[in-house]
Each structure stands twice: as structure tokens, then as C-alpha cells.
Amino acid sequence: MDTPLREPTFLILTALATEPMHGYGLIGEVAALSDGRVALRPGTLYGALDRLVDAGLVDVEREEVVDGRLRRYYRLTPAGEATLSSETDRLRRNVEAATARLRERATGATAPRLAGGLA
């Protein structure tokens, strides 16, 4: 994926970075990671997981029957890990740039520009 990830997708990949999880576990983990800001509904989650599987970022690790219902566990693939790492670096650079600009604003000092502007 070359475009920036939407926040729910970023959080799903983040939740899967440590261990495989099933759908309802992912819903809870995404809520925890976002301090409750992102509340995924099952339909939204499973649609996102289908897209992530199709993109090769997530795989189904295993399926098991629990209380008569199929529980599917998902895991991050190497491509998913690379995408999450790349997106984390992109977000970190954005945060660093914003932090520097806010610091400039607070102190009244201007730092050298990181990129060229319009002439």
C-alpha cells in the first residue's frame, strides 16, 4: 500500500503486530489502542480484514469452533509488518515536523525549512 493508511487500518495492523487475534479481540484491542476513539463494528472490521487479506498484509492463521461458532484468527504478514513500519515512520516524521513548528510558534524562533518552498 503506497497511500497513507486510514486510522482504523493502522490500528488493526498495530493490534496484530504482537500476536494473532480473532475478530472480537481485534475490536477490543483497537478500542484500547485508540483510547476508545475508534470503535469498530463487526461488519466494518471484517470488511477491512478481507481487504487486508486480499492485499497480502494479513493472513488467516487458523480457525476453530468455539461454542458452535467459527472463530478465525488473523496474523500480520511480512508485507503487513513492512507496511506498518513504513506508515509508523511516515507518521513519526509528521509528528516531528508539527512539534518543531509548534515549538517555533511558542518561542517565536524560526528554524530552517526542511523542504524547499515556492520561489
CATH architecture: Orthogonal Bundle
Order of helices and strands: HEHHEEH
Per DSSP E runs of 2 or more residues, the count of β-strands stands at 3
Alpha-carbon distance between the two ends? 33 Å
Tally of individual helices: 4
CATH class category label: Mainly Alpha
CATH domain fold name: Arc Repressor Mutant, subunit A
Q: What is the makeup of the main sheet? A: 3 strands, antiparallel
Q: What ranges have pLDDT less than 50 throughout 5 or more consecutive residues?
A: none
Number of domain modules: 1
Radius of gyration: 19 Å
Q: What best-fitting shape do the alpha-carbon axes yield? A: elongated
Pfam families: PadR
Domain Transcription regulator PadR N-terminal: 12-85
Protein name: PadR family transcriptional regulator
Topology (SSEs and partners):
Layout: H1 7-15, E1 21-22, H2 23-33, H3 42-54, E2 58-66, E3 69-76, H4 78-107
Helix pairs in contact: 1-2
